[in-house]
Amino acid sequence: MKIKCPKCSKNAELAMDFSFVKCDNCDLDMSYGEYVKFVAHNEKTYSDILGDYTGSTEGQSSGSLDEWD
Ligand SMILES: [Zn+2]
After folding, report:
1. Distances in whole angstroms, Cα of residue 12 to Cα of each of 36, 39, 45
2. Considering the entire predicted model, what is its pTM?
3. Going by DSSP bridges, is the β-strand pair 2-4/11-14 parallel, antiparallel, or unpaired?
4. Alpha carbon of 17 to those of 14, 39, 43: distances in Å?
5. pLDDT (tens digit, 9 = 90+) per residue, 12-25?
6. How many angstroms is it from 27 CA to the middle of ligand 1?
7. What separation in Å is there between the alpha carbon of 53 and the centre of ligand 1?
8. Rounded to an integer, what is the distance from CA 42 to the centroid of its chain?
9. DSSP string, 9-69
10. How far is the CA of 3 from the centre of ligand 1 (A)?
11. Which of 11, 43, 47, 63 keeps 20 to 30 A from 54, CA to CA?
């Protein structure tokens, strides 16, 4: 299913079995566990992202992603 990429804020793909998250836009590739930790750490709207995959969470967290690489 589509989710918001925590790195570039475009569409990323969450595996149906929640085994991984991948983004073609920025080459994000991590386990879902890593993704949850990453998002929880970087997004105050963590619950919004998990509750709404339709892309209505645009416009947050453009800061603080640099330190991730
Ligand atoms: Zn991305």
Report:
1. 13, 13, 17
2. 0.57
3. antiparallel
4. 8, 19, 23
5. 999 999 999 999 99
6. 6
7. 14
8. 10
9. SSEEEE-TTSSEEEETTTTEEEEHHHHHHHHHHH-TTHHHHHH--SSTTTT---SS-GGG-
10. 10
11. 63
